[in-house]
Design a protein that fits this description.
The protein has 8 helices and 26 strands. The structure holds ligand LQZAQKY5 and molybdate ion.
Length: 427
């Protein structure tokens, strides 16, 4: 059986000491299969879940030819091209209460939006342009056949897929399912993610802060991002920097989750047992990614009971709080979407904006500065959120976008164009 490391090391451009962001993401995504297992859920519970099988439309939508406007239902051939036409009002068609006669030559019916088009009618004239004089209805010239009408099945056709498998169900899809009269759909099971923070300096909420200690914030940002992705989160708390506790945590996590996310311990410090343990319990590609923040990151699999047993995918994120969020957005987020069965998986869009301040930039690596977007004279502009250290979590809280400085680019001058990724396009 080909090992994970063999697979990765055979890939083009694989350099474990300086992997480019896009390449690292590609390698991860190539390896991950979607989780198996489906369940049937009621339509409202399907929000943000991933559809497991195509939804086939049992009906045409709309189910009947109907009017798109309030107005007058006419036969187009009755209308004169150049002058007004006088027609006779013979009744009314309401939405949900059809006009059950036939419209003959020289006749018209008052019609409401959504009402079934009466027999013989192929055109609706909006009431705003029509004059009514007693029973006579005067239509101006310049109408078009089929105008203001909606044909049966023009939105969805009976027997055809209305929503393809792999689609993450948003409010629009939930509405489509309801419009078909379907009450339950089949969705993939949620991705199970176990997470824990490592580090003896970490202190939990409710405990006084000892000298040199910090409150554990990474578990909270990770919980927030995973919850927004609709994962089943298994929060294993803070695990001390000792091999026995870490091994027990990895074993437990690998037994119950599809993916394990840890933070801290992946750099080169003396207490960073975690790297050694990860390799002992599975197969790990330790990566130095050509990016800032987030340079040290471990990706692999934890399989404590051997490669034949299922185990879980591992994302060993760096400890610095901003590095956690940046590596999550750039790698873990698409990986979870892939595991969840989202298909097709699209890259996060980036768009250009004018940067209003100068920024330093290291050569050869992609930098993710935190930015605030605003408009000036109709143009989108961005400015960085002050201090950009990878421990400054405030820089993430104030930001609404990442300013993505690509590996090949140099420092940014005030007024230069940069690419930005909206954070609400992420999680
Ligand atoms: N000699 C080198 N030192 C460092 C390197 C390097 O390449 N050579 N890389 C730096 C980079 S970049 C990062 S990022 C960090 C990553 O180190 P670790 O993953 O080993 O993380 P720790 O050392 O455990 O922690 C770093 C920093 O983050 C704080 N932290 C950790 N966990 C949490 C948490 N759950 N909540 C809040 N804050 C947390 C921790 O206290 C440290 O301040 O290494 C650099 N060093
Ligand atoms: O991963 Mo680090 O954030 O570059 O300090």
């Amino acid at each position: 059986m080909t090992s994970l490391l063999q697979t990765l090391s055979c890939a083009d451009d694989y350099d474990p000491n300086s992997l480019h962001v896009d390449r690292a993401r590609e390698l991860i995504l190539d390896l991950l299969p979607p989780v198996t297992g489906h369940e049937r859920v009621f339509v409202r519970q399907a929000l943000d879940r991933v559809l497991a099988a195509d939804v086939i439309s049992p009906i045409d939508v709309p189910s009947h030819d109907n009017s798109a406007m309030d107005g007058w239902a006419v036969r187009f051939d009755d209308l004169a091209a150049e002058v007004e036409t006088r027609l006779r009002n013979i009744g009314t068609a309401f939405a949900g209460r059809a006009f059950d006669g036939k419209v003959g030559a020289g006749e018209t019916v008052r019609i409401m939006t959504g009402a079934i088009l009466p027999q013989g009618v192929d055109c609706v004239v909006v009431q705003e342009v029509v004059r009514v004089e007693g029973d006579a209805v005067i239509i101006p010239p310049g109408q078009r056949r089929e105008q203001n009408t909606r044909r049966a099945g023009e939105d969805l056709q009976a027997g055809r897929p209305a929503i393809p498998a792999g689609k993450k169900l948003r409010p629009a899809e939930i509405g489509i399912i309801a419009s078909l009269g379907i009450g339950e759909v089949s969705v993939r099971r949620r991705v199970r993610v176990a997470l824990f923070s490592t580090g003896d300096e970490l202190c939990s909420i409710g405990t006084p802060l000892a000298p040199g200690a910090v409150y554990d914030s990474n578990r909270y940002t990770l919980w927030g991002m995973l919850t927004r992705l609709n994962c089943e989160v298994i929060d294993m708390g803070v695990v001390k920097d000792d091999p026995a506790s870490l091994e027990a945590a990895f074993r437990e996590a690998a037994g119950c989750a599809d993916a394990i996310i840890t933070s801290g311990g992946v750099s080169v410090g003396e207490a960073d047992f975690i790297k050694q343990l990860m390799t002992q319990l599975g197969e790990v590609a330790f990566w130095k990614i050509a990016m800032k923040p987030g340079r040290p990151m471990a990706f692999g699999r934890i399989q404590p009971d051997g490669p034949e047993r299922p185990g879980a995918w591992l994302f060993g994120l760096p400890g610095n709080p901003v590095a956690v969020m940046v590596t999550f957005y750039q790698f873990v987020l698409p990986a979870i979407q892939k595991l969840a069965g989202v298909d097709p998986l699209k890259p996060v869009p980036a768009f250009p904006a004018r940067c209003t301040e100068e920024m330093k930039k290291g050569r050869g690596r992609t930098e993710f500065q935190r930015g605030i977007l605003f408009q000036e004279n109709g143009e989108w502009c961005v400015r960085p959120t002050g201090a950009q250290g990878s421990g400054v979590l405030r820089s993430m809280a104030e930001a609404d976008c990442f300013i993505v400085l690509e590996a090949g680019r140099d420092k940014v001058g005030a007024g230069d164009t940069v690419n930005v990724q909206l954070m609400n396009g992420l999680v």
